[in-house]
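Structure record:
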Amino acid sequence: MGNREIAIGEDVYETISESGTFYVDKTRFIGKWFRKKHKVEMILRPRRFGKTLTLNTIKRFFSIQYQNQPEPFLNREIGKNVEMMKKQGTTPVISLTLTGITEPTYDEMIETLGGLKTISGTLQPTKRRKVSILTLL
Protein backbone atom coordinates (compact mmCIF):
# COMPACT_ATOMS: atom_id res chain seq x y z
CA MET A 1 0.00 0.00 0.00
CA GLY A 2 1.40 3.41 -0.93
CA ASN A 3 1.71 6.54 1.14
CA ARG A 4 -1.64 7.94 2.19
CA GLU A 5 -2.52 11.46 3.23
CA ILE A 6 -3.22 12.14 6.91
CA ALA A 7 -6.57 13.84 7.52
CA ILE A 8 -5.41 16.47 10.00
CA GLY A 9 -8.24 18.12 11.91
CA GLU A 10 -10.94 15.84 10.49
CA ASP A 11 -13.21 14.45 13.19
CA VAL A 12 -16.13 13.01 11.20
CA TYR A 13 -15.87 9.21 11.04
CA GLU A 14 -17.67 8.80 7.71
CA THR A 15 -15.51 11.41 6.00
CA ILE A 16 -12.31 9.67 7.07
CA SER A 17 -13.73 6.20 6.45
CA GLU A 18 -14.69 7.03 2.87
CA SER A 19 -11.73 9.26 1.99
CA GLY A 20 -8.99 6.65 1.90
CA THR A 21 -6.79 8.82 4.12
CA PHE A 22 -4.62 7.28 6.82
CA TYR A 23 -6.75 6.18 9.76
CA VAL A 24 -5.90 4.30 12.95
CA ASP A 25 -8.86 1.99 13.56
CA LYS A 26 -10.20 2.72 17.04
CA THR A 27 -13.42 0.75 16.63
CA ARG A 28 -12.05 -2.06 18.81
CA PHE A 29 -12.33 0.45 21.67
CA ILE A 30 -16.13 0.56 21.21
CA GLY A 31 -16.52 -3.13 22.04
CA LYS A 32 -14.11 -2.98 24.98
CA TRP A 33 -15.77 0.12 26.36
CA PHE A 34 -19.29 -1.28 25.94
CA ARG A 35 -18.44 -4.50 27.81
CA LYS A 36 -17.14 -2.54 30.82
CA LYS A 37 -20.64 -1.16 31.54
CA HIS A 38 -19.25 1.78 33.54
CA LYS A 39 -21.72 4.51 34.40
CA VAL A 40 -19.14 7.13 33.45
CA GLU A 41 -16.07 6.83 31.26
CA MET A 42 -13.48 9.58 31.23
CA ILE A 43 -11.34 9.72 28.11
CA LEU A 44 -8.22 11.78 28.68
CA ARG A 45 -5.82 12.29 25.80
CA PRO A 46 -3.59 15.16 24.65
CA ARG A 47 -4.72 17.67 22.06
CA ARG A 48 -5.00 16.34 18.51
CA PHE A 49 -5.11 12.74 19.75
CA GLY A 50 -8.51 11.82 18.29
CA LYS A 51 -10.92 12.27 21.22
CA THR A 52 -13.62 13.94 19.13
CA LEU A 53 -13.15 11.47 16.27
CA THR A 54 -13.50 8.56 18.73
CA LEU A 55 -16.70 9.99 20.22
CA ASN A 56 -18.09 10.71 16.75
CA THR A 57 -17.28 7.12 15.78
CA ILE A 58 -19.16 5.85 18.84
CA LYS A 59 -22.11 8.09 17.94
CA ARG A 60 -22.05 6.88 14.32
CA PHE A 61 -21.96 3.26 15.46
CA PHE A 62 -24.78 3.29 18.05
CA SER A 63 -27.15 6.04 16.90
CA ILE A 64 -30.59 5.03 15.64
CA GLN A 65 -30.08 7.78 13.08
CA TYR A 66 -27.83 5.24 11.29
CA GLN A 67 -30.01 2.18 11.78
CA ASN A 68 -29.39 -0.49 9.11
CA GLN A 69 -26.29 1.37 7.87
CA PRO A 70 -23.38 -0.82 9.04
CA GLU A 71 -21.24 -0.39 5.90
CA PRO A 72 -18.64 2.03 7.34
CA PHE A 73 -17.80 -0.55 10.04
CA LEU A 74 -17.72 -3.77 8.05
CA ASN A 75 -14.02 -3.49 7.18
CA ARG A 76 -13.03 -2.35 10.67
CA GLU A 77 -12.16 -4.31 13.79
CA ILE A 78 -15.66 -3.96 15.22
CA GLY A 79 -17.14 -5.37 12.02
CA LYS A 80 -15.65 -8.75 12.98
CA ASN A 81 -17.55 -8.72 16.29
CA VAL A 82 -20.95 -10.25 15.51
CA GLU A 83 -22.46 -9.41 18.94
CA MET A 84 -21.44 -5.74 18.72
CA MET A 85 -22.67 -5.43 15.14
CA LYS A 86 -26.14 -6.44 16.39
CA LYS A 87 -26.06 -3.25 18.48
CA GLN A 88 -25.15 -1.00 15.53
CA GLY A 89 -27.81 1.66 14.98
CA THR A 90 -29.99 0.63 17.94
CA THR A 91 -29.58 3.37 20.55
CA PRO A 92 -30.69 7.00 20.90
CA VAL A 93 -27.51 9.08 21.29
CA ILE A 94 -27.18 12.54 22.79
CA SER A 95 -23.93 14.14 21.75
CA LEU A 96 -22.44 17.35 23.10
CA THR A 97 -19.13 18.87 22.08
CA LEU A 98 -17.33 21.80 23.62
CA THR A 99 -14.82 21.97 20.77
CA GLY A 100 -15.76 25.52 19.75
CA ILE A 101 -16.12 26.92 23.27
CA THR A 102 -13.30 29.37 24.00
CA GLU A 103 -14.73 31.50 26.78
CA PRO A 104 -12.21 32.23 29.55
CA THR A 105 -14.60 31.79 32.50
CA TYR A 106 -17.20 29.28 33.60
CA ASP A 107 -20.00 31.88 33.65
CA GLU A 108 -19.23 33.04 30.12
CA MET A 109 -19.14 29.44 28.94
CA ILE A 110 -22.58 28.71 30.46
CA GLU A 111 -23.93 31.89 28.88
CA THR A 112 -22.58 30.82 25.49
CA LEU A 113 -24.15 27.39 25.91
CA GLY A 114 -27.48 29.12 26.50
CA GLY A 115 -28.07 28.03 30.09
CA LEU A 116 -27.48 24.37 29.27
CA LYS A 117 -29.47 21.97 31.43
CA THR A 118 -28.52 18.42 32.30
CA ILE A 119 -30.96 15.65 33.12
CA SER A 120 -30.44 16.35 36.82
CA GLY A 121 -30.62 20.14 36.57
CA THR A 122 -28.51 23.19 35.76
CA LEU A 123 -24.76 22.71 35.54
CA GLN A 124 -23.11 24.13 38.63
CA PRO A 125 -19.42 24.76 39.21
CA THR A 126 -17.68 22.67 41.84
CA LYS A 127 -15.35 24.26 44.37
CA ARG A 128 -12.58 23.97 41.79
CA ARG A 129 -14.81 25.53 39.11
CA LYS A 130 -14.76 22.47 36.87
CA VAL A 131 -17.69 21.28 34.82
CA SER A 132 -18.48 17.64 34.15
CA ILE A 133 -19.96 16.96 30.74
CA LEU A 134 -21.41 13.57 29.93
CA THR A 135 -22.06 12.02 26.55
CA LEU A 136 -25.01 9.69 27.00
CA LEU A 137 -25.28 6.51 25.00
Remarks:
- Helices lie at 13-19, 27-36, 51-62, 71-74, 82-85, 106-112.
- Strands lie at 117-118, 121-122.
- The first strand starts at residue 117 and ends at 118.
